[in-house]
Amino acid sequence: MTAKQLPLPELVNGLVGLGVPGVGLWREPVARYGLAATAALVADAGLSVTTLCRGGFLTAIDPVERAAALADNRAAVDEAAALGTDTLVLVSGGLPAGSRDLAGARERIADALTELGPYAAERGVRLAIEPLHPMYAADRCVVSTLEQALDLAERFPAEQVGIVVDTYHLWWDDRVAAQISRAGAGGRIHSFQLADWVTPLPAGVLNGRGQLGDGAVDMRWFRDAVAEAGYRGPVEVEIFNDGLWARDGQEVLAETVTRYRECVVGDSA
Amino acid sequence: MTAKQLPLPELVNGLVGLGVPGVGLWREPVARYGLAATAALVADAGLSVTTLCRGGFLTAIDPVERAAALADNRAAVDEAAALGTDTLVLVSGGLPAGSRDLAGARERIADALTELGPYAAERGVRLAIEPLHPMYAADRCVVSTLEQALDLAERFPAEQVGIVVDTYHLWWDDRVAAQISRAGAGGRIHSFQLADWVTPLPAGVLNGRGQLGDGAVDMRWFRDAVAEAGYRGPVEVEIFNDGLWARDGQEVLAETVTRYRECVVGDSA
């Protein structure tokens, strides 16, 4: 998503040229390019698919909507398996129209995972609950903290359900250090994603994430925290930013690698 | 602020006409109308001043900036005392430019309160730390949860420092019930403010609060929670909303009273 203006072949070529070993994919561009074609493209390039984004939106009350959401999530699991990634990221969903019941919505997510967790595990795919920043609690994701995500995930085996540590969503929370340790101890850090927090936020607050180093997030702190918690998996950079998307995609990829080296790799301050 | 388009005399007349017994004031309109004149205006109308907004912005590192912030907060305390309110609301401040140290910023707030708490108490004014939604953590307030606010407040006597329960900032947090109980047990709920959460958020995310009943917040739940925690003080409605401000102010006041009766007063569902 950081360079979503690039068609998949150009994205893959760019990453290979920069020495990036893997790529996190979203379902929509995969569907446009074709699932089998995408799997062949990345495999032929020697890239791993780190995660597939995204399943989720599991909070509907209406039975028809719930059945449709479950079917869509099973399809997402199948797509993840076809792409050869072991992780499907879940954005859990917001409040149904007219509802003010956050606790009830979270319970419906748990209900859905009871079905989806085993389905995914049978296909070699782990579900990763991504807590989203509390500013999305009403309309995108009622799971707002890493603690809430773990409270949900720990009802299931770790090989079925884990969590995503995304700096953009979690940086403000003074409980995040303890929760990263908890997640690591349980083997539940299934993905680690980076974006910086910059202000002012744009209307709709979706596409204002910052390039690494431009904002308030201490990237090295997060890097060290997940490492100390035992995480050895890929690090994804996922920046939704209208400004980045308006630029040359290859330039954005190169800048992101440079920023990653400056802000994430290297010694702590 | 809900009807900030109204000059103070019209605001006061409107509230008296609607049977509203008190008003929360902001420093800027008070300064424009004159401190003594405002005090006389509200006293002559028989209104209480529920709170004065706002002090705070106590996170600066630079010594000159810190001294200026402390002086401004002492002035705010003096103004609160002159207006006859017992509560000054604090918006604590964001990260200084270039800083990523949330914990350090929170410690500087505590340092400032060591000086400001006694100064306020000597003048019959309580400081009320308002946790702001985490989307403001970088640029307005590093105190993002009621738990963090209480962790700060409890370092001081309750007659010096308490907290604000504002539905807009706290509604998403599944720990808020326990923290409201904690605040009430300690006699630290110094203010209770209402606004609803509506989406999409506007650019800058400051002036998109919802009229009571339009959004995701369960107002009666909050009303009951603070009541069960022992709170018997005033209830303020504080809605920053460009749409409300563009309308006739008296109409907005009347609508707000109607919504308050519908959404807050009356039996729980």
TrEMBL record, chains A, B:
InterPro entries according to UniProt: IolE/XylAMocC-like, Xyl_isomerase-like_sf, Xyl_isomerase-like_TIM-brl
Keywords, alphabetical: Isomerase
Domain Xylose isomerase-like TIM barrel: 19-255
Keyword Isomerase: yes
Name of a matching Pfam family: AP_endonuc_2
SUPFAM superfamilies xref list: Xylose isomerase-like (SSF51658)
Residues spanning the membrane: none
Highest rank taxon of the organism: Bacteria
Gene3D superfamilies in the cross-refs: Divalent-metal-dependent TIM barrel enzymes (3.20.20.150)
Single GO molecular function: isomerase activity
Full protein name: Sugar phosphate isomerase/epimerase family protein
The species this protein was found in: Streptomyces johnsoniae
